[in-house]
Amino acid sequence: VMWFQKAAEQGDADAQYNLALCYADGKGVNQSCEEAVMWFRKAAEQGFAEAQFLLGFCYYNGKGVSQSYEEAVMWFQKAAEQGNANAQYNLGDCYYSGKGVNQSYEQAVMWFRKAAKQGEVDSMLKMGDMYLYGIHFSPSCEMANYWYKQAEKVCPAENEESKQKIREKMQHLYCSEFEQLLYTFHEAMKELRIVNDRGNLAGIHSHAGITLETLDKMKEHADSCRNCGNMARRTFIKYHIKCKPYFISISDECRRKMEQGYTGDGLHDFFNWITRQLDYAEEKLRTATPILPYML
C-alpha cells in the first residue's frame, strides 16, 4: 500500500486503481469505500477502464458515494467503449432494465453480445434467458440452449456459484422445452382424430407426420435429460416413444392409399382402423400418467 500510495500521488493511474482496490477490500489499510471511490475516480478520469467500471459499480450500488444509476451508466459506458467486458455486461443490464437510461432491448443485446464475445458468462446467460422467455426475440429453446452451453464452456471450474446458476437454467430450459413438445404432441393427436373423423387422408398423413417428428424431438430431449438428472421425465418420454409404431403405421398406410389414388371415399374400415391405432396409443400413454407429479 505504501508504494501504491507514493505512485498514486504522482498520478500513476495503475497505482491509483490498485490503491483503490486495497481500500475497497481493506487489504493493508482500513477498509473505506469513500477512499476507494476517490482513487477509482482519479484513475477513471485518466481513462483507466477497470477503474471506470468499478467507479460505475460503486455508483450503481451506492457504495462510498450517493447511489445514482445515471452516473453508473456514464462510467459503464466509458469502460465498455474501451472493451471492458464487465462494463459491457453491466451497461447492457442497465439498458435491459431501464436503470439510468431509456430502456432498450436492442441496446441491451448489443452490449450483451460484445461482452459474450469476450467470454463474459452472465451476458451469455442473459442472452439465453431472453430467447427462452421470448424477450425481444421469438421464443427459442434451441437458441437458449446455445447460449447456456456457451456459458457452460467458458465458466471457470472453480466458480461454483456460476456453475450452479448454469445448471439451474439448463434444468429450467429442459422443463420448458419438454412442456412445448408435450403440448405439440397432444395437439397433433387431437387433430389426428378430427381429420380422421372427416375422412381426410392428406390431413391424417400430415398430422401423423407431426406426431412422429415431435416424438423424435422428445427422444433427443430424453437424451439431454441425462445431464439434468430428471429420470422421471426421461421415463415419461419413453412411454410416449413406445407409441411411435402406431403413428408410423398410420403414416405409411395413408401414404399408400394416396399413392393408389384414394381420396377418402369408401375407406370406412380404414378410418376405423386408425381410430383403433389411436386408442392403442392413448392406452400406452395412460400408463405414464402416474409419473407426471415427479417430472418437474
Stretches with pLDDT under 50, minimum 5 residues: 290-296
What is the H-and-E element order?
HHHHHHHHHHHHHH
Helix content: over 70%
- Total strands: the figure is 0
The shape, in one word, is rod-shaped
Estimate what percentage of residues fall within beta strands. Answer: under 5%
Describe the structure.
The chain has 296 residues and is mainly α. It contains 14 helices and no strands. The chain has helices spanning 2-9, 13-25, 33-44, 49-61, 69-81, 85-97, 105-117, 121-133, 141-154, 160-197, 201-228, 231-241, 244-259, 268-288. Helix 8 (121-133) packs parallel to helix 10, helix 9 (141-154) runs antiparallel to helix 10 and helix 12 (231-241) runs antiparallel to helix 14. The radius of gyration is 29 Å and the shape is rod-shaped.
Descriptive terms for the model:
296 residues; mainly alpha; 14 helices; disordered C terminus
List the topology elements.
Blueprint: H1 2-9, H2 13-25, H3 33-44, H4 49-61, H5 69-81, H6 85-97, H7 105-117, H8 121-133, H9 141-154, H10 160-197, H11 201-228, H12 231-241, H13 244-259, H14 268-288
Could you write a compact summary of the structure shown?
By secondary structure, this protein is an all-alpha fold. The chain has helices spanning about 1-10, 15-25, 35-45, 50-60, 70-80, 85-95, 105-115, 120-135, 140-155, 160-195, 200-230, 230-240, 245-260, 270-290.
